[in-house]
Amino acid sequence: MAMRAIASRKTLGGGLSLLGLRASGLGLAQLQCRGLQTFTLPDLPYDYGALEPAISAEIMKLHHQKHHQTYVTNYNKALEQLDDAINKGDAPAVVKLQSTLKFNGGGHINHSVFWKNLAPSREGGGEPPHGSLGWAIDTHFGSWEALIKKMNTEGAALQGSGWVWLGLDKEFKRLVVETTANQDPLVTKGACLVPLIGIDVWEHAYYLQYKNVRPDYLKNIWSVINWKYASEVYQKESA
Ligand SMILES: [Fe+2]
Question: Could you tell me the distance, in angstroms and rounded to a whole number, from the CA of residue 186 to the centre of ligand 1?
């Protein structure tokens, strides 16, 4: 889960807790402890136009304010419905909510990582990774250029909407390139996988600027990839 997302959580009022008290018979103190957590849209660490010419300000604004916000809104709504269903002991309703939670929760998680994966060129965006991540990339993929080529190929070939990832497999201490469909987070491909770089290949991420030419978007996005962030995550998670 993105650190920014965790930091931005807030607790809803006590109305749902009281509903739970009636339904489940839990003590009031316990219910206060299990207050429902919801999420808010994280701020971007740069201006909407700061990633031009790789990604236009219009795309960034819509992507952040409309698309990501919608995932957050629908995730919170589903969480409230889940809380209600659990309190009522409504097992079918709990199961029915799983795909909505996965889609919108995944959308929130993925985009929270994506914004941190980007940085303006004047702030180091696009600068190749050094140190331990740079060495690991050379070891696993041959070179940084070979990794980019692999991710671009897999990202371009992904059918429909989804994400292409550079991840760390913490169990086997190795780097992996994976794709996920829709808004599935990387963790759905393996419990030990941690995202280092995630690139959104949904059309909403590039169509206004690149039309249907996803490969051009993938080619240009590397000029604003924040390898410093990826290196920090790698060092922390591989220690
Ligand atoms: Fe997106």
Answer: 15
Q: Is residue 204 annotated as involved in ligand binding?
A: yes
How many whole angstroms from 28 Cα to the centroid of ligand 1? 40
Cα of 119 to ligand 1 centre, how many Å?
Answer: 16
Show the 3-state SS of the chain. Answer: CCHHHHHCCEECCCHHHHHHHHHHCCCHHHHHHCCCEECCCCCCCCCCCCCCCCCCHHHHHHHHHHHHHHHHHHHHHHHHHHHHHHHHCCHHHHHHCHHHHHHHHHHHHHHHHHHHCECCHHHCCCCCCCHHHHHHHHHHHCCHHHHHHHHHHHHHHCCCCEEEEEEEECCCCEEEEEEEECCCCHHHHCCCEEEEEEEECCHHHCHHHHCCCHHHHHHHHHHHECHHHHHHHHHHHHC
Distance 169 CA to ligand 1 centre (A): 24
Task: Give me ligand 1 centre to Cα 112, in Å.
Answer: 10
Ligand 1 centroid–CA 203 distance in Å is 8
- 159-182: pLDDT as tens digits: 999 999 999 999 999 999 999 999
Residue 63 known to bind ligand: yes
Run means of pLDDT, 10 residues per run, the chain, 239 residues = 36 32 29 69 97 98 98 97 96 98 98 98 96 96 98 98 98 97 97 98 98 98 98 95
- In this prediction the pTM is 0.85
